[in-house]
Amino acid sequence: MTLSFRIRSRLNAVCSIPPATYTVSWRAYLSAYACGWEFDAVNFTFSKKQNGTEDISRCKCYLKRPRAGVVLTQPDPTIQAVGNGWMEYEVGEFAVEAGEGNFALKFAMVATSDYHWKTGLSLDGIVIRPKSLVDVTVPLRLESSKCRSP
Questions:
Q1: Which InterPro entries match (predicted)?
Q2: Which of 34, 107, 131, 139 qualifies as a cystine partner to 21, CB 3.0-4.6 A?
């Protein structure tokens, strides 16, 4: 159990990545015994830094477990069920141009609270994929969802 949860990571891209627009998502799972995540939003941050310029994306989401029989009337394309209870929370996207040199990607997932203990979260990691491969037609079944930009 924890009141504060912080994960920060950095990836230095020194290899040639094919030109495309890529999406960045966190893959997470809440166990049947998870609690505390419904009270405080999780702050996701993603940035791409190259040649002294940094592009930053931010998103706040309430993590929820999938629940059978409940379908959102207005599905949020930034949250997708990917199977066996795992969810992907899209944080942002970035473009790679032809001949682009080295760049750095930074990721953060932060949840803090003075009042609500949190437990039951498992992380699979960061998912980076070409935007053309993202399937947004998967029906989403959640207890509830509140995802917004700050």
A1: PP2-like
A2: 131
130 phi and psi angles, rounded to 5 deg: -60, 140
Q: Does the pLDDT of residue 133 top 60, yes or no?
A: yes
Question: Which of 60, 66, 133 shows the shortest CA–CA distance to 90?
Answer: 60
Mean pLDDT in residue range 133-146: 44
- Inter-residue contact 88 to 27 (CB < 8 Å): yes
* Token pair 């992380």: residue: 123
* Residues belonging to the chain: 150
Name 125's bridge partners: 27
Domain covering 4-133 in this structure, CATH number: 2.60.120
102 Cβ contact partners less than 8 Å away, ≥ 6 residues apart: 12, 13, 14, 50
